[in-house]
């Protein structure tokens, strides 16, 4: 939390000194039903900037010891999550939270699991690079070393110059975070069987089971769609047309350690920022796109499978199933429900239909350092 606030202020200072913009305009190739993402005026999109950002995203020189990159915790084949229960930093430090998928992060109105103060991807990029609580890439206080590393690589002077042609010193911290953010805005997933059925009018793109599951998912009986809605399957979304983004967080009664809604002291969710008891255990609803490949689940990775996730919600929260009852802070939409075995299979089939194989294998989003010569 301290790092997030400090680096947000730092980004303001960084960007206030940067006035050079890439000149080649960026052409969005958006899926049907997707609005144009919101893009900060001081960081317009360009093809050159995205390509630079892709290199930086996958470059292990962005960690102090050269062992990790952004892409180490955000693997393309896992929809840019990492498959771990909780993330592991470059120094071997285990983190307290699960790595969120970056699919459609361009549309996220808030970033990370429970942070209302990170305004955009540019600010967020500073946290893993320079944050110390926890240590992720571990470059705090080593900014000059980072810039020297990049300057000494034959590729980067050209990539930075193309991305920031008006900058007197293109290789800078400001340019690094702006390029990474630009690349992350291209991580758009919208070619799943669900999309082909819903927007492409391919009537056989989804199985009959998945179609039945879709009906259940969007029913008041299950309530799923209240927190996982719209093209992004999330209720905290912004786009170019958004005037006032709605930033929401929810308590799903995953924990109730004291019978009064308490969460483990190591992670109390939004409460850490607001100090309000009603924010105990409240976290952002992640997108459900590609959810079948992003296990384990929840903010702490404590639920292993999608089947168990359904059990959690069917019980009105795992804590309720364990005998502690409802939490005074839990969402009104987490009330519990009953599914037959066939209905459960159908809902799981629907969630599987949100997997986008093209997104998981798109070469334009892949590691350029692993590309064939």
From TrEMBL:
- What does the entry's PTM section describe? Binds 2 heme groups per subunit.
Give every Cytochrome c domain span.
208-355
| SUPFAM superfamilies attached to this UniProt entry | Cytochrome c
A Gene Ontology MF term for this entry? metal ion binding
Q: Where does heme c 1 bind?
A: 70, 73-74
Names of the cofactor(s)? heme
Chain positions recorded as heme c 2 binding sites: 224, 227-228
Q: Where in the cell is it found?
A: Periplasm
The record's annotation in Gene3D superfamilies points to:
Cytochrome c-like domain (1.10.760.10)
Q: How is the cofactor bound?
A: Binds 2 heme groups.
Main location, first listed in the record: periplasm
Which keywords does this chain's UniProt record carry? Heme, Iron, Metal-binding, Oxidoreductase, Periplasm, Peroxidase, Signal
Does Oxidoreductase appear among the keywords? yes
What GO CC annotations are associated with the protein? periplasmic space
**Would the keyword Iron be found if you checked this record's keyword annotation?**
yes
**Protein's UniProt name:** Di-heme Cytochrome c peroxidase
């Amino acid at each position: 939390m301290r790092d997030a606030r400090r680096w947000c202020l730092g980004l303001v200072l960084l960007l206030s000194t940067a006035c050079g913009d890439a000149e080649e305009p960026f052409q969005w190739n958006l899926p049907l039903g997707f609005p144009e993402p919101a893009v900060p005026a001081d960081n317009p999109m360009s093809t050159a900037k995205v390509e630079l950002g892709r290199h930086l995203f996958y470059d292990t020189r962005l960690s102090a010891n050269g062992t990790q990159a952004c892409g180490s915790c955000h693997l393309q084949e896992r929809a840019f999550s990492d498959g771990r229960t909780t993330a592991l930093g470059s120094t071997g430090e285990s983190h307290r939270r699960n790595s969120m998928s970056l699919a459609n992060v361009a549309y996220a109105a808030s970033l990370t699991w429970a942070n209302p103060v990170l305004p955009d991807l540019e600010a967020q990029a500073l946290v893993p690079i320079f944050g110390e609580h926890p240590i992720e890439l571990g470059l705090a206080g080593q900014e000059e070393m980072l810039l020297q590393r990049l300057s000494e690589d034959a590729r980067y002077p050209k990539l930075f110059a193309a991305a920031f042609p008006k900058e007197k010193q293109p290789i800078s911290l400001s340019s690094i975070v702006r390029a990474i953010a630009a690349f992350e805005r291209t991580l758009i997933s919208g070619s799943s069987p669900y999309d082909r059925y819903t927007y492409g009018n391919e009537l056989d793109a989804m199985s009959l089971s998945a179609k039945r599951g879709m009906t259940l998912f969007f029913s008041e009986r299950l309530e799923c769609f209240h927190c996982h809605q719209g093209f992004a399957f999330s209720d905290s979304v912004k786009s170019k047309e958004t005037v006032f983004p709605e930033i929401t967080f929810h308590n799903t009664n995953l924990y109730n350690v004291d019978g009064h809604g308490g969460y483990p002291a190591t992670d109390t969710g939004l409460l850490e920022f607001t100090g309000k008891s009603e924010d105990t255990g409240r976290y952002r609803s992640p997108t459900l796109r590609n959810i079948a490949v992003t296990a384990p689940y929840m903010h702490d990775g404590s639920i292993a499978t999608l089947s168990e996730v359904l059990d959690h919600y069917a019980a009105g929260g795992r804590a309720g199933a364990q005998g502690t009852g409802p939490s005074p802070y839990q969402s009104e939409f987490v009330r519990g429900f009953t599914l037959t075995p066939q209905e459960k299979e159908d809902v799981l089939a629907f969630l599987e239909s949100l997997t986008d194989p093209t997104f998981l294998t798109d070469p334009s989003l892949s590691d350029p350092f692993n590309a064939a010569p």
